[in-house]
Amino acid sequence: MDEQTAKQLVDTYGDMLYRICAVILRCHADAEDAVQETLLRLLTKAPAFADEEHRKAWLITVAVNQSRSLLRRRKRLIPTDPALLHPPDADAEDRRILEALMQVPDSFRIPLLLHYGEGYKVREIAGMIGKSSSAVKMRLSKGRRLLEEIYRKDYLEGSS
User: Fold this and answer.
1) Residue among 79, 50, 60, 29 nearest 127 (CA)
2) Residue 153 gets which letter from DSSP?
3) Which of 39, 81, 100, 141 is an S-S bond match for 150, by CB 3.0 to 4.6 Å?
4) DSSP character string of 108-145
5) Domain formed by 1-80, architecture
6) What is the third-level CATH fold of 87-160?
7) Angle of the 52-74 helix axis to the 3-25 helix axis, nearest 10
8) Chain centre distance of CA 17
9) Where in the chain is the domain with CATH 1.10.1740.10?
10) Are 96 and 151 in contact (CB under 8 A)?
11) What predicted TM-score, i.e. pTM, was given to this entire model?
12) What is the pLDDT of the chain when averaged over all its residues?
């Protein structure tokens, strides 16, 4: 793979992969490491893809697996600043939603991010995280309820 293609991959997928890894790892440096490892794996293995969606799904799957691997090695969570996950122009409401999302357990946070943040369908998420479609639907449903409870408690009730 030439340098131009590698740069294009980073430009196309880098931010998305970083957000996914940062949400899982809750650590800026670890998220960067996971993204680098994911892109390095793509460059060294150079698998054949049917189309761009297949490539994107492969990258997300590898990024999730890299992040989980880092979590297992680390054996502890390091809190991160949710502002690191936002572009500088994100509004206050987006920041509050992300801060609430960061409090949701990983098993619900990852499907929520993939579905609502990246636009993946339940069946696609199931394949990426190795769960059944019904398990993903349950996690999305419970995750939405948890997110709403946290958001209401921390921001709506707290601001009255």
Assistant:
1) 60
2) I
3) 100
4) HHHHHIIIIIT---HHHHHHHHT--HHHHHHHHHHHHH
5) Orthogonal Bundle (1.10)
6) Arc Repressor Mutant, subunit A (1.10.10)
7) 50
8) 7
9) 1-80
10) yes
11) 0.58
12) 82
